[in-house]
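> run fold DUF2961 domain-containing protein
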Amino acid sequence: MTSSSNRSLARLRAVQTRSISPENPDGRPGGGARATEGTGAAAARDLGPGWKISPSVVVEPGQTFILADVDGAGVITHLWATTHTDHWRTLVLRAHWDGDTEPAVEVPYGDFFAQGWGRFAQVSSQVVAVNPNGGCNAYWPMPFRAGARLTLENTGPTSAVVYYQLTYETGGDHGDDGYLHAQWRRSNPLADRTPHVLLEGVEGAGHHVGTYLAWGVHSSGWWGEGELKHYIDDDTTHPTICGTGTEDYFGGAWNFDVPGQGYTPYSTPYLGLPQVIRPDGLYASQQRFGLYRWHLPDPVHFATRLRVDLQALGWRDGGRYLPLRDDIASTAFFYLDRTSTRRPVAPTFDTMEIR
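> ok
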């Protein structure tokens, strides 16, 4: 922590802390530990109220469960949740700011926490931490001026038991804050010689702050030569920011290959390759990867619009690039001066399916 961060932590502010969980579903003062029935009632039958009567909720197939519905100004500071890995790609997390009927965040539960493959991977970063075994934490600041509504939709065929706790501050001045947005897109397979789009149609002023990719390889050989490009404001054919390769964008080099070890996972405060899934010789026939890059010290600012895309390139004989048709699912995080913007079609059970 820097000295300025230390000073910020020490500063007294005219805000109050609230927390929403199944034990206090509306976060009201003195509202916790009052449940008389819930998923823990049978285990607490000898103890009574106040002894973990309602630690979780059951989200039924087809149901949209309201995680939090907050009135007034504030900022969400921490979201912790856990559910079985089978539901990481069937639950859809949404966030609406200031009463907007259109969501700013609309992402599969697992991908929001850098867990796109339905398997646990340790993530130890500044804004996302996922710990054994499936404790998912997000520290993205989520400010709002008139209200916040977060929901979980269960698109799957089975009930999901979800434990969660959402901590937020009430009050404060958020007039200069942007609203957190997160958008999910998947190309499976990626069209021939066509970049995968992470963001397009984003209008307004803001800054891109994070990228997570769940990348499934459909061919042999190296897959990470493609460039990531930011088309900022008036850019059309040519981008303002053009990277030098996929592994470079995620802070790695030379195929993520430590000699003698092959692909080598890593997780750092701002970037990582936390997940390497190798073929098992049977049904898991392809290599799969999870990668993140958080633009916290280096956000990509735009004044009017933003488009971001990524090439998928490998190598072919003769030292030539090979355009790939891989399975690429991206989650892009950004702050914007408005509560909603153009977004892709909502994730569905079929489009999220891990195959």
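Residues 66 and 85 are 20 Å apart (CA to CA).
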